[in-house]
Amino acid sequence: MPETLIKVDLSQSAYENEMVHNRWHPDIPIATWVEPGADFLVETYDWTGGAIKNDDSAEDIRDVDLTTVHFLSGPIGVKGAEPGDLLVVDILDAGTLKGAEWGFNGFFSKNNGGGFLTDHFPHAQKAIWEYEGMFTKSRHIPGVRFGGLIHPGLIGCLPDRAMLEKWNERELGLIATNPTRVPPLANPPAPKTAHMGKLKGEAAAKAAAEGARTVPPREHGGNCDIKDLSRGSRIFFPVYVDGAGLSMGDLHFSQGDGEITFCGAIEMAGGWLHIKVDLLKGGMAKYGVKNPIFKPSPIVPRYDDYLIFEGISVDEEGKQYYLDANVAYRQACLNAIEYMKKFGYSGAQAYAILGSAPVQGHFSGVVDIPNSCATLWLPTGIFEFDINPTAAGPQKMIDGSVDMPIAYD
Ligand code: ZN
């Protein structure tokens, strides 16, 4: 077995683990060094560092302090990596930590995080998913069971100072256009809850005051939440600092395209990745790479029959938008939820299925003015009953006796 370079103890606070951090900043010290060509194991906390419990209450989702996320394992230094290189990362394998064979999905309160459909689902709710090997099902959402596709929601390299300043400038500029918006337009630095890895004292406080939050995807990758970055995939990351400083976390057991529920996919309570690293010297300029590129895995759960829902850029009130792919995808998702409700699911359960199961999202048309067209691909094989439209009409397959716990503000 390869060496475990970063270990986590789920019974210990993530803040006590120096090989973990929750901000992006070039001053965060490299936690451990490897040679190009090395392969090794990395263990990870869940993205909240253990704030969400395997129980039947959504109060932890409602009350979570989102300035604490995401707890990442790293940064791992690769000897010889220099700015302008591409770091080649193979995800050789991925799995669950012993004793943590479960995950959570939910929606944040609109007043504390929100989500893609927060105007329709403004209250905190939670679903717990348990694993059976590579499969998962939820005691809060009957009638579905599917194969997982474990992937890191978040993986990327440390920014250099110029890139960090660019991030802060543009995101603080966006917040300034509507500083009181709920949920906020972006997340500014939050030094109080920053964990800067091995950096301590005054240097840590100074870096924490400007450390970029881990919530958005950026040029370095970061929180891209791409379900296809699964075991067997190969990613090429831009390198900005000597050693690259690769960090990862936010492991998902499964996720639908868009991670629309925001909290989130099926968030793994604890997991590990088997990683191999290598370098393409000067690769950024050679290949014109600004954002990461990747190769998918040769292995995916095979759900090749779908019910596909269309959505156009006209919102719930009938307002016309100009080629707005976000509005169009929201309509496709809402159409899928309305459909699933006819089989007995609550709206919340249907929403959670779209966030958790291997659903696909596609941008089908973005030029046919004024409507962009997005599609939501719902795999029919995840349901334990026939979900296709028939002449007999939808059968109530779900009796409503269980639902996702809810916690009001
Ligand atoms: Zn996540």
What's the CATH architecture name of the largest domain? Sandwich
Q: What percentage of amino acids are in beta strands?
A: 25-35%
Helix-strand pattern: EEEEHEEEEEEEHHEEEEEEHEEHHEEE
CATH class of the largest domain: Mainly Beta
Round the mean pLDDT to the nearest integer and report it: 97
Q: What's the CATH superfamily of the largest domain, by name?
A: Acetamidase/Formamidase-like domains
Helix content: 10-25%
**Oligomeric category:** single chain
| Class by alpha and beta content | alpha+beta
Question: How are the SSEs placed, and which strands pair?
Answer:
Layout: E1 4-6, E2 20-21, E3 32-34, E4 39-45, H1 59-63, E5 72-78, E6 86-96, E7 102-107, E8 124-132, E9 135-138, E10 141-147, E11 151-157, H2 161-176, H3 201-210, E12 217-218, E13 221-222, E14 234-238, E15 244-252, E16 263-268, E17 270-280, H4 283-287, E18 293-295, E19 306-312, H5 325-341, H6 347-356, E20 360-365, E21 373-379, E22 406-407
Parallel strand pairs: 1-4, 3-5
Antiparallel strand pairs: 2-5, 4-17, 5-15, 6-14, 6-17, 7-8, 7-16, 8-9, 8-22, 9-10, 11-13, 11-15, 12-13, 14-18, 19-21, 20-21
Helix pairs in contact: 5-6
This protein binds zinc ion.
Residues 47, 153, 250, 252, 264-265, 267 line the site of zinc ion (ZN).
